Amino acid sequence: MRFKRILLKLSGESLMGEKGYGIDEKRLADYAQQIREAHEMGVQIGIVIGGGNIFRGLSGAGRGFDRVKGDQMGMLATVINSLALSSALTAAGVKARVLTAIRMEPIGELYTKWKAIEAMENGEVVIMSGGTGNPYFTTDTGSSLRGIEIEADVMLKGTRVDGIYTADPEKDPTATKFQDITYDEIYNRGLKVMDLTATQCARRTAYPSMSSTWTSTATSVAY
Questions:
Q1: Do residues 133 and 145 lie in contact, with contact meaning Cβ atoms separated by under 8 Å?
Q2: What residues contact 146, with CB distance under 8 A and at least 6 apart?
Q3: Which of 9, 64, 85, 145 sits 20 to 30 Å CA-CA off 131?
Q4: How far is it, in rounded angstroms, from Cα 70 to Cα 61?
């Protein structure tokens, strides 16, 4: 199926590559090249990227950080990753624009739906950073929200595993991969594909033709 516009959710952890922290420059360049290939096919691309390779607000709260401040630190981590990906895309010959959920010019322009859509229609890859701009919401939820707002045909989630499994295949060698799975099955099985707020957001407002199924491919497809 050919999509006109996609929302790509990348995990921050995936940017670590072989490193235990931060950004692996080779992995970043690989991502930029793959995004370039899709862009050259005429696909309009919006991207939301996590910040877990730098700081994760919820785990920070477990270490004594105030939860709101911890989440704000996590939002800033997503901005760092977004700037890195933007730089890599520019080096690969792709026009990219960073939008932020919280006002912080000149680092990035303040996000609006219409600004993001206009940039994509003008041939730019748009990277939407800062999550939702509010604490207590993950970048999974932010990606569901942004995908709906920019009227994406599909949301693709790129993680360190190649699809949706019955359990984390990095921890459970007996985990098996789904080819198709419904939102209800994700909920009933308690699968941590995305957090439940993100899953329910996609379920309630996704396009009718795709609203009931997640397809497990090289990246996990929501909506």
A1: no
A2: 7, 46, 48, 116, 128
A3: 64
A4: 6
Task: Say which residue, 136 or 223, is predicted with more confidence.
Answer: 136
Per-domain residue ranges of the chain? 5-222
d(CA 58, CA 17): 22
Question: What percent of the residues of the chain are helix, what percent strand, and what percent coil, each to the nearest 5?
Answer: 40, 20, 40
**Amino acid present at 202:** A
Q: Is the backbone peptide bond immediately before 169 cis, with ω within 30 degrees of 0? A: no
Write out the E strands in 114-173.
Answer: 125-129, 154-158
Q: Predicted confidence band at 200 (pLDDT cuts at 50, 70, 90)? A: confident
Residue 1: both structure tokens together? 């199926």
Residues 53 and 23: beta-carbon distance below 8 Å: yes
| CATH topology assigned to domain 5-222 | Carbamate kinase (3.40.1160)
